[in-house]
Amino acid sequence: MTLYGVGLGPGEADLVTVRGKRVLENADVVYSPGRLSRSVALEHVSEETIGDLDFPMTKDEAKLRTAWKAAAAEIAPNAREGDAAFVTLGDPNVYSTFGHLRRTLEAFHPDVDLEIVPGVSAVTAFATALGVEIEAGAGLSLREAANGAAPTGPDRMILFKVTDAPATHEGLVDAGYDVTYGRRLFMEQGETLVTADPSALADRDYYTLAYAEKRDLEIDSATAAFARDGGSVDGSSASDDHERT
Ligand SMILES: C[S@@+](CC[C@H](N)C(=O)[O-])C[C@H]1O[C@@H](n2cnc3c(N)ncnc32)[C@H](O)[C@@H]1O
């Protein structure tokens, strides 16, 4: 049958897609790579459906390869005999552990059928959570900013893995960016925080991202003129409008 890579979205149970929920409910076994994805999956399936996988907390590539080979060996027979699901937060194809599993299965168990159910990624959910509009025609780059890194270059960036917000902030501000941070956005687990103050994020939390935009960036869209000119583009001002209503 099939192994489904299911994107769970950012963390709130009702941000799982209708398709993702259906696949989870019909799966014989549901695997998760971590505590948070497991707790979201448990909002949709019972504890008995959850399969056990052991992932070491290491960056040692040899140990990681061994762990993924073991995970694939556990999952493959279940995905041949029935339907299995492997859940990840966000989307399975964006900065996700599912990529390791897919490559390992393709190398060692190529007969396993794979299907991916996309999820709401933090790459897009951040815009609503931070009240940012990425207007049509604008560019947006995804970068990683772990351990105080401050990548620069693009006009607009979304930065993942902001684990040292004060250090990242200093680098970005020096390079001419305005920065807003989002922690645990659309997540049931832990406190959601949106702030431009990096000292509010001094404690390390892996689920922290940043949106950086070059200062004084010109927004080029037909209706942007309304915001710049206070509504006077068609000859009337915002205060005139206010007086008329
Ligand atoms: C390994 S990436 C996983 C991305 C995920 N696959 C997705 O599509 O959203 C993890 C990073 O994404 C960001 N992230 C993911 N979910 C988040 C959330 N709900 N709130 C804030 N940041 C989040 C954080 O920067 C975190 O370090």
Supply database-style keywords:
245 residues, alpha/beta, Cobalt-precorrin-4 Transmethylase, domain 1, 8 helices, 32% helix, elongated, disordered C terminus, binds S-adenosylmethionine
How would you sum up this structure, described in words?
This protein is an alpha/beta fold and 245 residues long. The protein folds into two domains: 2-117, Tetrapyrrole methylase, N-terminal domain (Cobalt-precorrin-4 Transmethylase, domain 1), CATH 3.40.1010.10; 122-214, Tetrapyrrole methylase, C-terminal domain (Methyltransferase, Cobalt-precorrin-4 Transmethylase, Domain 2). 32% of the residues lie in helices and 19% in strands. The protein contains eight helices and ten strands. It has a five-stranded parallel sheet, with helices on both faces. It has a five-stranded mixed sheet with strand order 6-7-10-8-9, with helices on both faces. Helix 3 (61-81) packs across helix 4 (98-108). The N and C termini lie far apart (63 Å). Residues 237-245 have low confidence and may be disordered. It binds S-adenosylmethionine. Residues 10-11, 88-91, 94-96, 121-123, 160-162, 182-187, 206-209 line the site of S-adenosylmethionine.
What would you say about this model in short?
By secondary structure, the protein is α/β, with parallel strands linked by helices. About 30% of the residues lie in helices and about 20% in strands. It has helices spanning about 20-25, 35-40, 60-80, 100-110, 120-130, 165-175, 225-230, 240-245, and strands at about 1-5, 30, 50, 85-90, 115, 140-145, 155-160, 175-185, 195, 210-215.
